[in-house]
Amino acid sequence: MGSREGSGFEIIAPSRFGYLGAPIPLEPSIELQADVYASLLDALRIKRTVVLGFSAGGPSTLQFALRYPHRTIALIMASAVSYTEPLSDTGRLRLESGINRIIGFESFLTKIVSFF
After folding, report:
1. Is the domain of 79 the same as that of 90?
2. Measured between alpha carbons, how far is 2 from 13 in angstroms, rounded to an integer?
3. Nearest to 50 by CA among 34, 39, 35, 61
4. Which of 20, 25, 56, 69 could form a disulfide with 15 if both were Cys (CB 3.0 to 4.6 A apart)?
5. CA pair distance 80, 105, nearest whole angstrom
6. Which residues contact 59 (CB under 8 A, 6 or more apart)?
7. What domain range includes position 58?
8. Same domain for 109 and 68?
9. Contact 75/62 with Cβ under 8 angstroms?
10. Would you say 25 and 41 are in contact if contact means Cβ atoms under 8 Å apart?
């Protein structure tokens, strides 16, 4: 967690299941991840929030907004995955090739990570 001086907002950046040492439940799902986000907000006594889904965090943050609209002030999807069906090998190669051609993408990621 971190505070943006003078903004009135606090940044909470939880890890998805399996990332940064976060445990993986026996039956993980994007719905369960959304419920875990809600439980975290409950524990922190936060009633409403702006939700940012970046990259592979997109599906679970989208689920949070769908499951908890009364708690979602806004949903921001930044380069977020929104399709949860597995890609074919050809589809994955095309996606990776496209991402690798985006000029400035690596710099953008560095700036986003340093913000948090």
Report:
1. no
2. 9
3. 61
4. 20
5. 14
6. 30, 53, 80, 81, 82, 84
7. 2-84
8. no
9. yes
10. no
Note whether 84 and 33 are within 8 A (CB): no
Residue 78: what residue type? Answer: A
Distance CA 106, CA 109 (A): 5
Q: What single-letter amino acid sits at 65? A: A
CA dist 79 and 106 (Å) reads 13
- Read off the pLDDT of residues 18-77 as tens digits, 9 standing for 90 and up: 888 888 999 989 999 999 999 999 999 999 999 998 888 888 998 999 999 999 999 888
Q: Do 58 and 93 belong together in one domain?
A: no
C-alpha gyration radius of the chain: 16
Q: Please give, one letter per residue, the 3-state secondary structure of the chain.
A: CEECCCCCCEECCCCCCCCCCCCCCCCCCHHHHHHHHHHHHHHCCCCCEEEEEEHHHHHHHHHHHHHCHHHEEEEEEECCCCCCCCCCHHHHHHHHHHHHHCCCHHHHHHHHHHHC
* 72-78 and 49-54 strand pairing: parallel
Is this model's pTM higher than 0.85 or not? no
